[in-house]
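Think of the structure tokens as a kind of shorthand, similar to the way a musician reads notation: each symbol stands for something richer, in this case the local conformation of the backbone. In the example below we present two proteins back to back. Begin with the first one, reading the sequence and then the tokens, and try to describe in your own words what changes along the chain.
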Amino acid sequence: MEKTQTGVRMATPLLKVLKGLAEYKDMSLGDLLEGIVLHAFEGKAPFSEETITVIDKLRDVYDCRLTAENAHKLPDDIETGR
């Protein structure tokens, strides 16, 4: 399957959590994002309870306070979600 290099903008703390999770899962950031999106397209949860625990720890480490309520409302200059 062909893959395309893309540049996307996202809140820095969120990106740090995603990179940390990809590292924990021993996969690329792109593969992690593809998996999350494909699960979402099918209405399935992408993470196990164990992985959610890891995500919660990474969110604390990187001070990522963003939640689903912040989706689609983030200004371009957001950094922490405070």
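Once you have a description of the first chain, move to the second and do the same.
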Amino acid sequence: MKTFITIIRWFVGLLFIFSGLVKANDPLGLSYKMQEFFEVWGWHSLNDYTLFLSLVMNILEIGAGVAVIIGWRAKWVNWFLLLLIVFFTFLTGYALFSGKIKTCGCFGDCLPLTPAMSFGKDLLLLVLILFLLAVGSRIKPAVSDKAGTRWVLIFVVLTGLLQWYVLYYLPLVDCLPYKKGNNLIEQMQTPANAIPDSFSIVFRYKKDGKEVSFDQMSFPADFDSTYEYIDRSDQLVRKGNGLTARIVDFSLQSMSGTDTTTAVLQQPGKYVLLFARDMSRVNSWRKDFESFSASMKARNISVTIVTADASRAAELFPGTPLLKCDATVIKTAARVNPTYFLMEGALIREKVSYNCLNTLKP
């Protein structure tokens, strides 16, 4: 029994640590997922606090995972794990049964799970944590209380430092389609073996006081103005395999609104795109950008600002090439605001935070 309890503790602890580490690698990604839930629930006032909640959540997951493995204050930790898993199960259950959230973000973008997989995982953890609560008196700490406190604090501090680093310099492991080495045109292409969902349009009309329904392939032979339209709906006929292009919303536009995505990504030679979601922190990177841009111009390498705040950027950087892009797309492409992309055609040769611009060597 003792061995079985130890195995369960290690399994639960490692899963919480892994989950926390994956999300700590990209805390902004988790904060955006929180915003998605809050938007669905209408809790818009909480959007400004999602990054803080993300940072705290990741620290708590990893700290609790370490604590359950070493048996530190088992009773308190097991109750805390139960609260966490009940909360997570509610979120994954909501994502699964409401259909309003496609992924819960349990393992970040590095290991995307379907709502069904996430819900099943949380149900399993719920059962295991309830078991640990039931056998709590049999759990003996592997280290002294003082040493356990020290180990938990060490991992909490290390998690905090990791999150500070990735918020400043970009995630250590980039799991997004805009990562170094990816070809953006290829990422925007639908896989050859993709099968889309197939839908049928069903119309509802009223004829001679009776309601009739038919799809777009079977209009009544006598269909005319005597049919009174009620509404229409889409009904799923065949479920696809869920394969889609990894990038579906990337678009670069000129200041006049012309789509220049293809032209930009097919230009020859190397060039630099600076993805800046907005100009809110421009004073922290403007001087370095202007110096870098001048050095690139001397080497005939173009530097273009891609932003959702084009009008403000035009005021701040007159004469600098500008392109407009959706803010949500930029948040995905560039976790640090702003981020430099060294491009060669559609290939991302390098990707660095503005905080380490000196490492970018075109």
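Compare your description with these statements about the second chain. Residues 272 and 303 are 5 Å apart (CA to CA).
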